[in-house]
Amino acid sequence: MKAELVFIGHIETPYKTKDECPRNISKDGPLCTIVLKEKYEEGLYRLEPGQKILILYWFENVNRKLYRQYSGKTGRYAGLFALRTPNRPNPIAAATLKIEKIEGCRIFVKGLDCISGTPLLDIKPDINDIR
Amino acid sequence: MKAELVFIGHIETPYKTKDECPRNISKDGPLCTIVLKEKYEEGLYRLEPGQKILILYWFENVNRKLYRQYSGKTGRYAGLFALRTPNRPNPIAAATLKIEKIEGCRIFVKGLDCISGTPLLDIKPDINDIR
Fold it and tell me: A65-119 pLDDT, tens per residue?
């Protein structure tokens, strides 16, 4: 069984290659922009600066069949489900971030960890910050 | 642009219909089981009982083009990105839970909120509990 995703926008960061990307998100990192396609703008209604969001994004060009590997963070050899590696059967990344500001279709956050241009899949209020 | 997901397993809960499902996860809810397909079992290596995981799962039969609606929780009218509604362009649900125990391909957790049989997309260590 399979399911299809649509890309609802993209993420803009200072990073052009994988090697430049930090290993994880950082709340004091540089300003990044989540850019939603215009057709979805009405879906942002009542999302507020200061609110925490969970975003889902898509890691392209990864190995979807690598089931164990060494942790880039701790060096430990472990299964993919015990790691945050992008090499996963469904390469969906998840990050919880505070909204700095919103301008139209653009949401500004700090410290994302992905290449600029990364496809966006979803934005949700953090489970502890639904308003 | 589109991307394809694979279902890596399913979730077993006490709920057979949407109406029976609680509105959100609850850490004191009934025991539920995350059942991974056998081919992925080696990916569980070094995931441990007591550890917190983020799971991603797939909401089937939802409206992927409903951009605003009333919150089932607060009654407030809001955009889909300000809500945790299953009606989203990419109907991916996210839940953070503690592992009660692991037996082969089965991970036991408490208090999931979905219909039994819901397709599973991913398991990750919680960002604050990577071991």
Answer: 999 999 988 899 999 999 999 999 999 999 999 999 999 999 999 999 999 999 9
Pairing mode, if any, of strands B106-110 and B9-12?
unpaired
Q: Is the dihedral of CA A23, A29, A31, A34 positive or negative?
A: positive
Is B9-125 in CATH node 3.40.50.920? no
The rounded Cα B72 to chain-centroid distance in angstroms is: 18
Q: Answer whether B4 sits within 8 Å of A5, measured CB to CB.
A: yes
The answer to whether the Cβ–Cβ distance between A24 and B127 falls below 8 Å is yes
Give me the interface pTM, i.e. the ipTM: 0.94
Q: Write out pLDDT tens, residues A16-66.
A: 998 999 988 898 999 999 999 999 999 999 999 999 999 999 998 899 999
Structure tokens at A100: 């700095």
pTM here is 0.95
Q: How far apart are CA B28 and CA B45, in angstroms?
A: 27
Chain A residues closer than 8 Å to B2 by CB: 4-7
- Chain A residue numbers with beta carbons less than 8 Å from the beta carbon of B76 are 46, 131
Q: Rounded CA gap, A29 and A52, in Å?
A: 16
Distance from the Cα of B21 to chain A's closest Cα (Å) equals 17
Calculate the alpha carbon distances from A42 to A32, A46, A99, B52, B77 in Å: 21, 10, 17, 34, 12
